[in-house]
Amino acid sequence: MLEIGAGLGSLTRLLAASAGHVTAVEIDRKLIPILHEVMASYTNVNIIEGDILELTPRSLVEQDGYIVVANIPYYITSAIIRHLLENPPQPSRLVLTMQREVAERICAEPGDLSLLALSVQVYGKPVIAASIPASSFYPAPKVDSATLRVDLYDKPFLNPPQRDLFFRVIKAAFSQKRKMLRNTLASGLNMPSEQAVALLEAAGIDPSRRAQTVDLVEWRTLVGELENSHTLA
Questions:
Q1: What are the pLDDT digits (tens) for 132-187?
Q2: Disulfide check for 196: which of 122, 186, 203, 229 has CB 3.0–4.6 Å away?
């Protein structure tokens, strides 16, 4: 297991009792001596001082299939998730405590999809496993939290080259999410509007739709059309 934000080791002890090995990352230097003291009796815990965004998963775990457990600061939720999912080795599951509103956005369905939701859902299936009221924490934050569980797909939904193109396309599409896809893709991908319309229609997507209504399967089809057309360099 990889724990991000081990703090004083309250959760680390529980993880160590059930896991074969735990790598616990903590950014606060002042907490490291306490964490070492609390975990002194456990031989299967490796404590790392550092910022998870500056550490590669490869430097922390040796193989695919590890589980990530974290209480994530709200302001870097998206950055941490992308960092873990886009750098090998690949985890099999993420169990993350975060702002409830963010967790709900990640679990959104077509009609309410966002760049963040698609950026997670392309790797695995997210579900809200538990709701945690603000009063459960001390000091209490101003927002409620939730535990988000993301089970990663056994087989990639898109291969790496397609994934790069996928992110390029959805970033263009959500750059002006109130506008129709034929306009956002033409502008964001620097192509004539007629060409954007043709690609969307070839993928079976109405050019007048908005980005938040398009599901992952439709995005994958559109990526395939773009690959076949050799439109983008």
A1: 999 998 888 889 999 999 999 988 899 888 999 999 999 999 998 889 999 999 99
A2: 186
Domain boundaries, the chain: 2-152, 160-229
Buried b (16+ CB within 10 A) or exposed e, 187-211: ebbebeeeebbbbbeebebebebbb
Give residue 157's identity as a one-letter amino acid code.
F
Residue 233, pLDDT > 80, answer no
Q: What is the β-pairing status of strands 145-152 and 124-132?
A: antiparallel
Q: Which residues contact 106 (CB under 8 A, 6 or more apart)?
A: 116, 117, 120, 121, 126, 148, 150
H or E element at residue 80: helix 77-86
Q: What is the CATH number of domain 2-152?
A: 3.40.50.150
- Chain segment 98-140, per-residue pLDDT in tens: 999 999 999 999 999 999 999 999 999 999 999 999 999 888 8
**160-229, CATH topology level:** Helicase, Ruva Protein; domain 3 (1.10.8)
181-188 and 160-173 helices cross at what angle (nearest 10)?
110
Q: How far apart are CA 91 and CA 77, in angstroms?
A: 17
CA dist 213 and 117 (Å) reads 12
Half-sphere exposure of 231 (CA within 13 A, CB side): 24
pTM for this predicted structure: 0.89
